[in-house]
TrEMBL record:
Keywords: ATP-binding, Kinase, Nucleotide-binding, Serine/threonine-protein kinase, Transferase. Pfam families: PK_Tyr_Ser-Thr. It comes from Gossypium armourianum. GO terms for molecular function: ATP binding; protein serine/threonine kinase activity. SMART domains: S_TKc. The lineage of its organism: Eukaryota, Viridiplantae, Streptophyta, Embryophyta, Tracheophyta. Its EC number is 2.7.11.1. InterPro entries: Kinase-like_dom_sf (IPR011009), Prot_kinase_dom (IPR000719), Ser-Thr/Tyr_kinase_cat_dom (IPR001245), Ser/Thr_kinase_AS (IPR008271). Residues 36-285 form the Protein kinase domain. PANTHER family: RECEPTOR-LIKE SERINE/THREONINE-PROTEIN KINASE SD1-8 (PTHR27002), RECEPTOR-LIKE SERINE_THREONINE-PROTEIN KINASE (PTHR27002:SF1063). This is non-specific serine/threonine protein kinase. It catalyses: L-seryl-[protein] + ATP = O-phospho-L-seryl-[protein] + ADP + H(+); L-threonyl-[protein] + ATP = O-phospho-L-threonyl-[protein] + ADP + H(+).
Length: 285
């Protein structure tokens, strides 16, 4: 290991910059994951594979292991670790600690037993477990997490990758934003032109990009069947006048106006779909 790398490891392992993170050994993590057994594999991302682990005290954790072929060096890993550790909010997956030993670089997170939101949205049987109150609660939690990243965190974060698979659910189905691999971080001291220059130098992303992605995700959460949408070939056929799309299904919640005829007069009555909501109709005296 180069001397610069050695000093980076030393800095991480002695005090870890006041971040109060646990430092795990590679041997402990090997034991917790049964030697990175395929049975413990939760998924794979840009950072590398993610494994479920059980620590000696019985605590379940999720362990991200940096892929051996990753271009991310120790210094970049260290910077990402410090930045992620500063993002502590109830609506973000919590970073518990890390391991830097030899060639191994790993991040240890709290374990989310209900996995990601897409496993519910795209599964008919699990979808039934999400009533309107639960969906509203999930949307609200994601909103609070995104607001924290954009406005209340110590750093200004543009997440850039908001999607169902990056929203994890805890044992009580509370949502938490995870996977900051694509997030762009801007300090509050940076001038607006610096931020604009950085954005234009790579690609056009801003807080509005996150809001747009959030809107797309909300539509999927409130839809009865997110998969029930036309393919691109269908869209082209419609644009060419070769076919017509089927009428959309009734939304999960809707309002409308209906004319009610009585013996005395006609009046407009606002009606609501029944979907676990209690609504009141207001009529003048």
């Amino acid at each position: 290991m180069a001397s610069e790398d050695a000093s980076d490891v030393s800095e991480l392992q002695t005090g870890n910059n006041g971040l109060n993170l646990n430092i795990y050994t590679a041997g402990l993590i090997m034991s917790a994951t049964n030697g990175f057994s395929p049975d413990n594999l939760l998924g794979k991302g840009g950072f590398g594979p993610v494994f479920k682990g059980t620590l000696g005290d019985g605590q379940e954790v999720a362990i991200k292991r940096l892929s051996s072929g990753s271009s991310q060096g120790l210094l970049e890993f260290k910077n990402d670790l410090i930045l992620i550790a500063k993002l502590q909010d109830t609506n973000l997956v919590r970073l518990l600690g890390f391991c830097v030993q030899g060639e191994e670089k790993m991040l240890v997170y709290e374990y989310m037993p209900n996995k990601s939101l897409d496993t519910f949205i795209f599964d008919d049987s699990k979808m039934k477990l999400l009533n309107w109150d639960k969906r509203f609660s999930i949307i609200e939690g994601i909103t609070q997490g995104l607001l924290y990243l954009h406005k209340y965190s110590r750093l200004r974060i543009i997440y850039r990758d908001l999607k169902l698979s990056n929203i994890l659910l805890d044992e009580n189905m509370n949502p938490k934003i995870s996977d900051f691999g694509l997030a762009k971080i801007y300090t509050k001291r940076m001038k607006l032109d610096q931020i604009r220059n950085r954005l234009s130098a790579h690609s056009i992303f801003s807080e509005k990009s996150d809001v747009y992605s959030f809107g797309v995700m909300v539509l999927k959460v409130v839809s009865d069947n997110p998969l029930d949408r036309p393919t691109m070939s269908d869209v082209i056929s419609v644009l060419n006048g070769e076919m017509q799309l089927a009428l959309p299904k009734q939304p999960a919640f809707s309002t409308g106006i209906r004319i009610v005829e009585t013996n005395i007069e006609s009046k407009e009555v606002e009606i609501y779909s029944l979907n676990g909501l209690t609504m009141s109709t207001m009529d003048g005296r």
